[in-house]
Amino acid sequence: MALVVHKYGGTSMGSVERIQNVAKRVAKWVKAGHQVVVVPSAMSGETNRLLGLAKEINADAQDMSPRELDMIASTGEQVSVGLLAIALQAIGQDAVSYAGWQVPVRTNNAYTKARIESIDDKRIRQDLDAGRVVIITGFQGVDAQGNITTLGRGGSDTSAVAVAAAIKADECLIYTDVDGVYTTDPRVVENARRLDKVTFEEMLEMASLGSKILQIRSVEFAGKYRVKTRVLSSLTPHDLDINIEAHSGTLITFEEDETMEQAVISGIAFNRDEAKITLMQVPDTPGVAFKILGPVAKANIDVDMIIQNQSTNGTTDFSFTVHRNEYKKAMEVLETEVKDAIGAKEVIGDDKVCKVSAVGIGMRSHVGVASLMFETLAQSGVNIQMISTSEIKISVVIADKYLELAVRELHKVFDLEQDAQIESV
Amino acid sequence: MALVVHKYGGTSMGSVERIQNVAKRVAKWVKAGHQVVVVPSAMSGETNRLLGLAKEINADAQDMSPRELDMIASTGEQVSVGLLAIALQAIGQDAVSYAGWQVPVRTNNAYTKARIESIDDKRIRQDLDAGRVVIITGFQGVDAQGNITTLGRGGSDTSAVAVAAAIKADECLIYTDVDGVYTTDPRVVENARRLDKVTFEEMLEMASLGSKILQIRSVEFAGKYRVKTRVLSSLTPHDLDINIEAHSGTLITFEEDETMEQAVISGIAFNRDEAKITLMQVPDTPGVAFKILGPVAKANIDVDMIIQNQSTNGTTDFSFTVHRNEYKKAMEVLETEVKDAIGAKEVIGDDKVCKVSAVGIGMRSHVGVASLMFETLAQSGVNIQMISTSEIKISVVIADKYLELAVRELHKVFDLEQDAQIESV
């Protein structure tokens, strides 16, 4: 008998029929002797509908009270938990739903992007011990003053992992519309392989690099509290044998050696919609990085890679990447507020680039990963424009037309293909 | 300067544009120096949509956990308060929204039909004193264990009056889609007159008789706590002079003499969809009424009028009316569970009847109202099938084909027409 948390995304909760399927799956787990807490998202489209109403009322979203936005947006999950409770009761499984404030899930006061501070497990445990399924709203909590807060988009993943940490669950199962974490996007590389296990550090790099399976903060949470978290598909039939389900998908682990046996590199991640910007011949003085990125951050532009190389003759070139949608705005900020102020010679940019990364915890102890990556790209005629590395990741910026080519070649050279299909390559 | 509560129904909150109109009206009141608390309903159709989802999941509504239904249904008003706060802020008026549990509005634990027990006015007063409009969800509260409860359909009226009582508001303005309480339905009698004032006892009789302007419990609440309550139209332009608005609609008062000057009868109320049922020759023994109505109540059938006349030869005829939709069910219960058990001779019924009532606090001190009513109906050829009276009301059951005729004739004979139109009659 295990104590598990199930998390279901908006697609899994997207219709009455799908909610009934979720209920059947959960009931099956209970019948097999497990205690289950469920954290569902809002029905797909609902959060957008609600925020759309607010935007219709006040087109200038900057002016809008984030407190009121949270008041509105949090209702989507509240409807979901009630409907799921009713669906479970309809098939004879006792269940009870709670909004975040009822548990309570305590957060700080940062509306629309709140952080969970604590979760009281008392009420949850009482209900579980009474044989009930406990259903808790994802995405939201309550601050010390009793105001409703939300955790930001994708926050239900974080809610689920945090609940799992609070009740010391044996495992947190994230049911989603993919059946696990892959070595790369199967739409780009046909024989991409599903990983049985991935370390949470690798998952962290994959998530932030655009794999988009889990909200990155949920992965951080899983790491911090060592919550065994499994990503698996909610689209597989729910009459599947429970033992199969409990071993399917991809498990995010904390023991390095479990995943270390075979692969140096676990996957090839990529981001399509990048733009790069370089300030040429920036005087290399203390504080110059802040003088460049301060105004950019102030304009609410997220910066991804940042690269500054060794200076020559007292100047250096300073580069960074942004999302393609923010390229124009970023260029304008640099031209008007930064360039002359810091005495840079020129601002150049390119919004036709992408980022490709090799991620793997095995990289730490293996030399030669970077050189194999660069050699492979060179042989394919792909020019590398920028390079950035971390302990378990190497990222390159290349022209976006080479994205598929680069991902496929790297996937091949690092032996990531499915076994069955290696024969046919 | 006054402290007022505004209540807006689902139609007034039915679209983004209408919510913006509500905001303009509220802001106008604040600019004129008043403190305003607003209690809005869910956007029209929203509560039905939410409960419809629940019913889709569990077609057999009887099995559904009322706790979960309240969890779901309460979200409609939560969206409304957030949107209205945003609409007020967008036009420069500081505002803050609260769900019932945040105030808190304490209720008992009777899910889907909870009763308000207390309302804490501390948070409301602090916000009002800080210059904010306070927006509180209608229809809902929280029980002692922190569960969300709802007050039942139309409960937002009760919420508004209860909030007005708690903060000792000068007046509770119920904005609705009619511009006040009329002497009868203007669709039946063209020259029906709007009443400037009506006593709460009269309003109570009118509401329960199907005038449907205010939820009856809100009128009881207004009476109990002596809340001056005004019914007025939200469809009049919100740039109306505030002094006009403050004196429009119909005021529900507690001082008899204010409304006593002219009329004996204040209005003619009616209910179209009635059915009557009679048990013939029921042995007149103690407890027989309970033996008849117990099984009916157990089948969840609401009973309206109940009439039992003097017995002759040890038996009596026992009659009552139900909503037409429940006629068949009620007949079945009586035939199978009651008739033989109590030794009644026969069960007869008619679902083609209606109820017409003359209501007026002046009736108390005026003899002859009943006889004038019966005489008028007789002269129009309307046969009276049942009669029931209270201190301020006389109700008759007649064949439903006579409804319009009866209402018009009674409206005329009790001098209820608009002055301007009396000339043309």
From TrEMBL, chains A, B:
Keyword rRNA-binding among UniProt keywords: no
User: Gene3D superfamilies annotated for this entry?
Assistant: Acetylglutamate kinase-like, VC0802-like
Q: Which GO terms describe its cellular component?
A: cytosol
- The superkingdom listed in its UniProt entry is Bacteria
Coiled-coil ranges (or none): none
Q: Which UniProt keywords apply?
A: Amino-acid biosynthesis, ATP-binding, Kinase, Lysine biosynthesis, Nucleotide-binding, Transferase
Q: Where does ATP bind?
A: 7-10, 176-177, 182, 187
Identify the EC number(s). 2.7.2.4
Which Pfam family is an annotated match for this chain, by its short name? Answer: AA_kinase
Q: Which InterPro entries match?
A: AceGlu_kinase-like_sf, ACT-like_dom_sf, ACT_Aspartokinase, ACT_dom, AKii-LysC-BS, Asp/Glu/Uridylate_kinase, Asp_kin_monofn, Asp_kinase
GO MF terms, alphabetically ordered: aspartate kinase activity; ATP binding
Pathway annotation: Amino-acid biosynthesis; L-methionine biosynthesis via de novo pathway; L-homoserine from L-aspartate: step 1/3; Amino-acid biosynthesis; L-lysine biosynthesis via DAP pathway; (S)-tetrahydrodipicolinate from L-aspartate: step 1/4; Amino-acid biosynthesis; L-threonine biosynthesis; L-threonine from L-aspartate: step 1/5
User: Domain named ACT: which ranges?
Assistant: 277-352, 358-425
**Which reactions is this enzyme annotated as catalysing?**
L-aspartate + ATP = 4-phospho-L-aspartate + ADP
Which residues does the annotation say bind substrate? Answer: 47, 77
Q: Which GO terms describe its biological process?
A: homoserine biosynthetic process; lysine biosynthetic process via diaminopimelate; threonine biosynthetic process
Homology family = Belongs to the aspartokinase family.
Write the protein's name: Aspartokinase
Q: Which organism is it from?
A: Hydromonas duriensis
